[in-house]
Design brief:
Order of helices and strands of chain A: HEEEEEEEEEE
Largest interface: A-B, 41 and 43 residues
Structural class of chain A: mainly beta
Number of strands of chain A: 10
Oligomer: heterodimer
Number of helices of chain A: 1
Strand order of the largest sheet of chain B: 1-2-8-7
Helix content of chain B: 10-25%
Radius of gyration of chain B: 19 Å
Distance between the termini of chain B: 42 Å
Number of strands of chain B: 8
Order of helices and strands of chain B: HHEEEEEEEE
Number of helices of chain B: 2
Shape of chain A: elongated
């Protein structure tokens, strides 16, 4: 099984009409021999309101920011705080029970360990 | 620069499908405005030209916010001179390069530097900067004579 089949991107859902805008955060996925590290930029997300769900092979991450009226008149307006949402399909090579998440400085780091079957293993050759 | 186009921004509202076209036009307007206001932004290396920044003003304050995910406050430098605010820093990678392969890469990294012209003179001693959850908020108090004050109209 190649790395590509391990994680397929799941296209994000449309905007949430009630709360305004939902933004698809940029993601980096890095592979090492033990697993994958997924890094998600979610500046402004409240750490306690980050929701990560894993169900039927689908990993969904949601972050909530405080949006609403901000004081003053805008002179420069390059971003609009929005809630974050992104989903990924995880293949069988990931040990879903051991996924760990850390949130620091607006970046969510998810450790996705490879399941034992996928780790490179030396196979002993029995001599004759 | 003596002659710089200045346009007041209106907050964009979410209105379903038609917003897309409005946003495109807004984005292009912003691109041009930004070039006149802050030419260094497009030349800055690092994540897409630097962090996204909002500048808002009230009667007695200027509030600058920037999205800086992954930037540690020790890698951040902010200084104020006259009516220029400078934000300089570096967004570093969280892990080491060796032993790891990028399978997917959408985020960017590197050094950034934004110089922002403030709409009023500020008191450099009354600046408050808070970096929380990847968002930087800089609150600057306007100098007393730059504050907006109501003028009484006398009836005769």
């Amino acid at each position: 099984m190649t790395t590509e089949t391990m994680m397929k991107r799941h296209e994000p859902t449309a905007q949430n009409a009630e709360t305004g805008r939902t933004y698809t955060p940029p993601v980096d996925i890095v592979e090492s021999k033990d697993g994958w590290l997924m890094l998600v930029d979610m500046p402004g997300a409240e750490p306690k309101e980050i929701d990560i769900q894993y169900e039927n092979g689908l990993l969904t991450m949601r972050g909530k920011t405080q949006h609403g009226q901000r004081p003053g008149r805008f002179l420069l307006h390059e971003y609009e705080p929005a809630d974050y949402e992104r989903s990924f399909v995880l293949g069988e090579g990931i040990n879903a029970d051991k996924i760990q998440a850390e949130f620091k400085d607006g970046v969510m780091m998810l450790h996705l360990p490879k399941s034992e079957a996928l780790k490179p293993r030396r196979i002993e050759v029995k001599g004759g | 620069m003596n002659l710089v186009p200045w346009r007041q921004r209106r907050e964009s509202k979410s209105d379903g499908g038609t917003m897309q076209l409005g946003r495109l036009r807004n984005d292009i307007d912003q691109l041009f405005d930004q070039f006149f206001r802050d030419p260094w932004a497009s030349l800055a290396r690092g994540f897409g030209g630097g962090p996204a920044v909002d500048v808002a003003e009230t009667d007695d304050q200027v509030i600058v916010t920037a999205e800086l995910p992954g930037v540690d406050s020790k890698d951040l430098e902010i200084d104020v001179a006259g009516n220029m605010l400078s934000i300089r820093g570096e967004k570093k990678q969280e892990h080491e390069e060796k032993d790891r392969n990028y399978y997917f890469s959408e985020r960017s990294f590197g050094r950034f530097h934004r110089s922002i012209e403030l709409p009023a003179s500020v008191d450099a001693d009354k600046v408050d900067a808070v970096c929380k959850n990847g968002t930087l908020t800089v609150t600057l108090a306007k100098k007393a004579d730059a504050q907006r004050k109501k003028v009484q109209i006398k009836e005769r």
